């Protein structure tokens, strides 16, 4: 029966205590941790070397300590769509989480929050279900994803929508100010607020106006 099947697990967690603890829990429930790694490149290499039954990974880990683990999981699922992946993290990275959960039609994938796991048997059950092709998602993760997938323009004020529509016509700040009979400084303030609400990062400053217009056109 599937309940008795021992799983071969690749574990990715940069915290040494958490990594050892998860290894102990998985072993206790009859599974074999074929390799436990602390960074995303090692995760990719371990999966290639061992071809495990399931990957259990954190989100934030080296080399950049952002969403390296999650992005590695997405890449692994692209290479091998049937690879079961369970994300176990303190953080909800909504953009990457959506991509992971959409992969392979949402089969054999999970996303759980460490702080919301009350009983280790629940975690063990989630590992088993994902390995067997199921989907396990913490309700808090679902809530964040649904909020993100609403029309992003719903976050904008009516004036910010007007400014964005004029931007989509290719108008400069000065031309927008003239059309709305406001100062150029006011237009700049509206644009900055709009870009922040659309989650367009400052480090992409050269392209932010283009990305904002694309968001407008998609909506």
From TrEMBL:
Question: What superkingdom heads the lineage?
Answer: Bacteria
Q: Where in this chain does the record put each Response regulatory domain?
A: 8-129
Sites where 4-aspartylphosphate occurs are at 58
Per the UniProt record, the source organism is: Actinomadura logoneensis
A biological process from GO: phosphorelay signal transduction system
Supply the alphabetized keyword list: DNA-binding, Phosphoprotein, Transcription, Transcription regulation
> PANTHER family, per this entry?
TRANSCRIPTIONAL REGULATORY PROTEIN NARL-RELATED, TWO-COMPONENT RESPONSE REGULATOR
Q: Which residues form the HTH luxR-type domain?
A: 149-219
**GO molecular function: any one?**
DNA binding
Q: Which CDD domains match?
A: LuxR_C_like, REC_NarL-like
What is the protein name for this chain?
Answer: DNA-binding response regulator
* A Pfam family per the record: GerE
